Amino acid sequence: MTFVQVIEYDTERPADMDQLLDRWMESTEGKRTAFHEIHAKDRDRPNHYVDIVEFPSYEQAMRNNDLPETQRIAAQMEDLCTGEPRFMNLDVLRDEKL
Q: Which domain of life is it from (predicted)?
């Protein structure tokens, strides 16, 4: 079953967040278990962003989370946020192309 993690956060430093994602992708090449990521900006709320990350399973997501590179980037991400990021862990029940 596919697993999705949604990360919601506010930041006034979106360019720095993009650089963090780039560094994470470089440093986890060949190790990460995430296979798809969508980065989106909320049109109605300035400085509000949502990342949607897909994994093959919950177990694979937790393995990805435990990577030292992921832990390092997550700590740096929190420093760039205004407030606490919100994480949602979702089991995909339906996935249809419309």
A: Bacteria
